[in-house]
Structures are given as structure tokens and as C-alpha cells.
Design brief:
alpha+beta, Alpha-Beta Plaits, 175 residues, 5-stranded antiparallel beta sheet
């Protein structure tokens, strides 16, 4: 395949023609309902799962939920080029599984820019908080984070393919 027949790379919205990073102008975009969900899966030992109920630091799952919600609200302070947006809803679901904990974060807003980063930040900080609460029991915990779906905006809807999601789940399930 020669160079001229390669598909063009998509343009990066946060990089200008000179290669400098910048915050994307959103003033011309329509205000629409936006939503996104992200998942973090924390792989941990059985001992860590059992310690959820007796952790010396306090209520592990409540702390994870509050930290994740707070993180979603602080995304623009943590990620340099994210716009501060008014979130209309953040939900955090925690599912204890045989080999870890699944943290699902859903963020919603009615604005000119999406909420993928808010959902991803919430899931990530939730996973970090889970680690912090139980590191005395299991310092070998690991986690993976990914966007599951998003809707609204110029780029349209996105949903992770079921085949790729299954592969990720199998990878996360290895011990």
C-alpha cells in the first residue's frame, strides 16, 4: 500500500495547525443532552473483597461512590483542556464480583460539550479510592478503565463493541 492510498488520520481537536495544544472553542456548538458511561474494573484478592466489610478506614463502598461523584465534578480541574460543565446527574454503581469490583460511572449534562471525561474520571478515581481503602490488605490490585458508551454531540453516539467488551472482561478476570 502506498502513502497516497492510506486513510487520513482523524484530526485531533485539541491540536492546532502548528501542533500546539489548545482548548477547543465550543461556543458555536449546539446545546444538547449528553451522557456517557465508563467502567473501571479493579482486580483484587479474595482477602481484599472480604475486607470491604471490615476495613479500618471506614465504609469502603460509600467512600468509593462519594470520591467518584466528587471527581466527576472536578474533571476540568484535573484534566487541563476539559471545559467546566454543569453536570445534571452522576450515578455510580458498584458490583462486587468473584475477582474484583466493577465501578460503573454515568455522567449527564445538557451543554455544548460531552461528558466522557467526567465519566472516565469518576470511574478512575473510584478505582484509586478502592485501592487506597484496601491497600493494607492487597497492594497487588490493578485496574482497567474504559468508555462504555456516549450519546449526544457532533461526533454522534458511541458504544463499545460487545466482542471487545467481552475480551476486556476476560483479561480483567485473569488471576
Amino acid at each position: 500500500m502506498n502513502r497516497s492510498s492510506k486513510p487520513a488520520k482523524p484530526a485531533l481537536s485539541h491540536v492546532d495547525a502548528k501542533g500546539h495544544v489548545h482548548m477547543v472553542a465550543i461556543d458555536a456548538k449546539a446545546i444538547t443532552k449528553r451522557s456517557a458511561s465508563a467502567v473501571a474494573f479493579v482486580s483484587c484478592s479474595t482477602d481484599a473483597l472480604l475486607a470491604i466489610a471490615t476495613a479500618k478506614k471506614g465504609d469502603v463502598l460509600a467512600t468509593v461512590r462519594i470520591a467518584a461523584i466528587q471527581a466527576a465534578k472536578q474533571t476540568s480541574s484535573l484534566i487541563p483542556l476539559c471545559h467546566p460543565i454543569p453536570l445534571t446527574h452522576v450515578a455510580i454503581d458498584l458490583d462486587i464480583e468473584a475477582n474484583g469490583v466493577r465501578i460503573t460511572a454515568r455522567a449527564e449534562s445538557t451543554d455544548r460539550t460531552g461528558v466522557e471525561m467526567e465519566a472516565l474520571t469518576a470511574a478512575s478515581v473510584g478505582a484509586l479510592t478502592f485501592y487506597d481503602m484496601l491497600k493494607a490488605v492487597d497492594r497487588s490490585m490493578t485496574f482497567e478503565v474504559g468508555l462504555v458508551e456516549k450519546s449526544g454531540g457532533q461526533s454522534g453516539d458511541f458504544s463499545r463493541s460487545p466482542k471487545r467488551a467481552r475480551a476486556r472482561t476476560k483479561l480483567s478476570s485473569r488471576k
